[in-house]
Amino acid sequence: MDTLFDLAREALHCCSFDGKKKLIASIFCELGNEQFDVTGQVAPERISQAGRPSLPILVPPTEVKRRRLGSIEGRVALIHAVAHIELNAVNFALDAIYRFRGMPHQYYRDWIRVASEEATHFELLSERLRQLSSYYGELPAHGGMWAMAVATDYDVMARMALVPRVLEARGLDVTPGMIEKLRGVGDLDTVSIFQRILKEEVDHVRIGNEWFGWVCERRGLCALTAFKDLLQKHGRIALRGPFNEQARLDAGFTREELKELHWLEQEFRGQLQPVS
Ligand SMILES: [Fe+2]
Ligand SMILES: [Fe+2]
Predict the structure, then answer these.
(1) Which domains are present in the chain?
(2) In this structure, are residues 86 and 122 in contact, taking their beta carbons and an 8 Å threshold?
(3) 161 Cβ contact list (under 8 Å, min separation 6)
(4) How far does the centroid of ligand 1 lie from the alpha carbon of residue 217, in Å?
(5) pLDDT in tens, the chain (276 residues)
(6) Residues measured by CB to lie within 5 Å of ligand 1, the ion
(7) Which of the ends of the chain has fewer CB neighbours closer than 10 A, N or C?
(8) In angstroms, rounded to a whole number, what is the distance separating the alpha carbons of residues 55 and 49?
(9) What's the gap in Å between 88 CA and the centre of ligand 2?
(10) Centroid of chain to Cα 158
(11) C-alpha of residue 197 to centroid of ligand 1, in Å
């Protein structure tokens, strides 16, 4: 019988979205069994690129076009970019299951729920693209997103710190602004999709926060210091502000952590004034 990790590996490598969705449903079934094995017989392999459809073509982020949201082309470009993030997020959640062995059962249940919600986000946005006479794959997309999965594949603590708490949490900062702009141009259908995504993303970041805290506690580490160290090591490229403090507090960040994020972000941008 396929184990949890075999199924997660297969889902990660699967290139078709529908195939991934079916495998996510199979993993859900596997996790319904109270006795599922979380040890894994074979060590996880490095996955330098997760399975994805042959389109879109991937380009450096600077080559992903941005347009004003007043035009349909502008909205299609935005929705396409977010759909691409969501498909990557499906793979991130599957990889959090596949790679990190021996975690409590609830960890795997949390991440399969995230994978399933990310798949729904992708579907909602793909459908919206079709309504706007486009489709996912029509435009070039950001080619560097998986890099953080590879950079943090050595440790669940690094993964929880950098993916949900930095990359996904960035979605909490920028989505309200996108919603306001979309509302301003009267695209209420896309507004309602983005509102749903924002609400569920708070929960994904909360899950990341909980498991990061859990690992730190088990290792006897101060979570704030561990987070700071990991940000210094990996976060220079990814950490961006300004931060949506309320959404981040709702997702379980502490005020101390937010203060630290703010300082580090300024330091990384070279904006801190030397103390004279
Ligand atoms: Fe999402
Ligand atoms: Fe998410």
Answers:
(1) 4-268 (1.20.1260)
(2) yes
(3) 152, 212, 226, 227, 230, 231
(4) 28
(5) 568 999 999 999 999 999 999 999 999 988 988 778 888 888 999 999 999 999 999 999 888 888 789 999 999 999 999 999 999 999 999 999 999 999 999 999 999 999 999 999 999 999 999 999 999 999 999 998 999 999 999 999 999 999 999 999 999 999 999 999 999 999 999 999 999 999 999 999 999 999 999 999 999 999 999 999 998 898 676 788 999 999 999 999 999 999 989 998 888 887 655 444
(6) 86, 89, 118, 121
(7) C
(8) 14
(9) 10
(10) 14
(11) 6
CA distance readout (Å), 74 to 48, 67, 141, 175, 238: 31, 4, 14, 16, 25
CA distance 266 to 236: 11
Spatial neighbors of 122 by CB under 8 A, at least 6 apart, are 17, 83, 86, 87, 90, 136
Gap between the terminal Cα atoms of the chain: 66
Dist. CA 271 → ligand 1 center (Å): 31
Outline where 132-187 has alpha helix (H): 147-151, 156-162, 169-184
Kindly report whether the peptide bond that precedes residue 56 is cis, defined as omega within 30 degrees of 0.
Answer: yes
